[in-house]
Amino acid sequence: MAGVTVKVWGDFACFSRPEFKVERVSYPVPTPSAARGILEAIFWKPEFRYEVRRIGILKMGTPFAILRNEVENHMVQPFFVEDKRQQRASLVLKGVAYLIEAEMVLRPQATDPIAKYWEQFARRLERGQYHHTPYLGTREFPAYFAPPDGEEPDGSLDLDLGPMLFDIAFVEDPARPQLTFKRPGKGEVKGYALPLFFHARIKGGWLEVPKEKYQELYRLEGGHAPGT
Amino acid sequence: MLRELKEAFRRFHEEGVLLPTNYKEKRVSWLVRLEGEKACLEHLGRGKGVKPIPAPDRQRSGKASENNLKPYLLVDDARYVLGIPEKGKEKEARLLHRSFVGLLEEACHETKLPALEKVLQLLKSLKVRTIKRQFLNQGGKPRDLVAFKVDGVLPTDLDEVRDFWSRFLARKLEKEEGYCGLCGEKKKVVSTFPREVVILGQKCQMVSFNKGAFNSFGKKQTENAPTCYACASQVVDALDYLSRSERHHRTLYWEAKGGLQNQLAVFWLKEPVTVPSEGPAGSLDLEAALGGLLSEEVGPDTPLPDLAQLRELLKAPWTGSQWPTHLDEVSFYLAVLSANKGRLVVREWFAVSLGRLKEAVARFLEATRLVGPRGEDPRPMAIGALIQALGEANPTLARDLIRTAFLGAAPPQELLLALHLLRNPKLLSPSGPKEWGRLHALMAAVKLWLFYKKEGTCMAELDREQRNPAYLAGRLLAVLEEAQKRALRYRVKQTLVDRFYGAACTAPAATFGNLLRIATTAHLPKVGSELRKMVEEILAALDQAGGFPRTLDLTGQAEFALGFYQQRAELRAKSHKESGKEAQ
What we know:
The complex is a heterodimer of chains A (228) and B (584). Chain A has 228 residues and is mostly beta strands. Chain A has helices spanning 32-42, 114-127, 212-220; strands at 2-13, 24-25, 48-59, 62-71, 85-106, 144-146, 159-172, 179-183, 187-203, 206-208. Chain A has a single domain (2-71, 85-221), classed as Alpha-Beta Plaits (2-Layer Sandwich), CATH 3.30.70.2660. Chain B has 584 residues and is α+β, with helices and mostly antiparallel strands. Chain B has 20 helices and 16 strands. Chain B has helices at 2-15, 78-81, 90-111, 114-124, 127-137, 159-173, 229-244, 286-294, 307-315, 354-368, 383-390, 395-407, 417-421, 425-428, 433-451, 469-487, 496-506, 508-523, 529-544, 554-583, and strands at residues 23-26, 30-35, 38-43, 53-56, 76-77, 145-150, 174-179, 186-190, 197-199, 202-204, 249-253, 263-269, 274-276, 283-285, 331-340, 343-353.
């Protein structure tokens, strides 16, 4: 296992709550899956996966309401946007900064040592390289990132946030074929997506992510779990 | 927000103010009375004149079809209860009536209640034809609500019926298994929320995924946000109560055409708090008082909140044997809601402890506290009054003011619209009580913008020691106007304020020369020494402060307006007192 720490910040962020993901309302801090998404935008290979350990809150951000014209359907041809207009509100965060601490863990199909991937990540982080633009919850809110610069979260920040989305488990289950996804060595399989939650608490400016939740995720995803 | 609503459900449930699970208050127009073997129809009236009764409710939308039949138990419209069709929709009425009877049969079978069996027997007997005939003869309409009363009792009030309704809805709504996003337990999650809430007259689902673009991972509707039946029912019941209760909601913005512009604020404390107060009651309901900060306009059944009392309370230390312990830690919740095409929109949401809120609210009350336009005692102003006075059709303003009042955020720049409005002579010289109130609120908005973040400055009344040139110039204009009025024995149609306020508040140096020349030659010689002395004092202070400013920026114009208003208020109060003495 190899630990990585990244500082991310941005003008706006929206970590949509599942219950308010249409007329969006953001969680006050990033979910572990949103943090994982940022890391994966910088560097990702199928041979490893990120386990987010904790998220430091450097700037909480202030809630900010916006109203935008969006569309009601997924893109199908032909698509006349004027017929599909939907005005939707979003309660987003303005001016945020976080520290993401995560570990890279190898998956069963990996053959190379983790150090290889860790060093690649460190090089990309240092150079500011990324695969696709990292974003804070939604793609319209890009994230800036850099190696940590010594800035620490506010130690006096303690908050009980209640249940928060942890991640989505893709459970293989032909009896519940809601979607099709790929599994290494198996190709396309049928199953469903199961959202997992954890009780989020910020202590001393850090949102601790329970390690055991990853074990539950791997258990649900069956053979998709990391090697060790 | 849903987690806090779930907590609120527990509080309201303990207080006994909630309706039974998935019940809603409905205004029933017709009552079928079953007494012994007799059945008769009674017309209760229509609309707001009818007292609402709690009745089973569920989410119901779309065109009725074999696959979309959702009758309410025992209380529904005449299409369902009696099969009365709308014009040309006889087939639909038969379908709806069949579904209503089917649901009643299920309830009878499960509860074995004689009252339900009696209703079912009636609907299956020939007597129902007489009831239908009476209904139509008395002008009944297919969409009128009809209920039953069996031997003087509404069956919907029976515990067995309530329990059945909850079980029935759970069976209908629970689908796949998943982790509930509110309680975290692995349970069956609901496919849709049990019922809608009504936000400013518009029905909407709390959690809705009613268009294709909103769904993810092949899931539909509420499967996208897994919630168990118990949690879903509790949050809907709690929000329904909050949006109905006059104590817990205020309309922030409303337009008849509806839509996203309209905004409703709902608020509550984690637990009810009563604190000692010097008022006549000896105690103050903190929740109601904080609601008064949003708007002082409340319904006839709710006591009028007193902002001055709240201000006194916030100034006092929260200690003593009568005070609740851990008061600082009690949370205050506030959400601003709108409805958008059947979906609930959260425009603002925060949870703040009373300890933190106390400072922000005290500062807001102090910053808006201002003497009345006719010299009435200074009083703070509610957010609703400020918005109404500004007449600004900007829903963001309401939310920004809420953040200022409860969280201590900087006041919105839109408050300065008041300066623009004050240049209208009609506003500066009000005629009726409503207009006087508007002027007061506009000046309170100006004062809030000026003083919110300033330490130690209150200026609720005229400050004679103030040496700010803009403030002094404002005062001078008020005195010169008074001199003009007195010289012309108040028989003046248009005062110098009506003509020169705009110029004086933007470019005092260029305007006051002319005004002073007219005053010293035409007005001041005809009035007593009091006003002359005042003019001299103000001019001396202005000299010390560097003379008339050439131009005034927005801050300067705000200070000018405040000086003018406060000086005018004092002059009015004085003349009111003198006229009172003369009358005696």
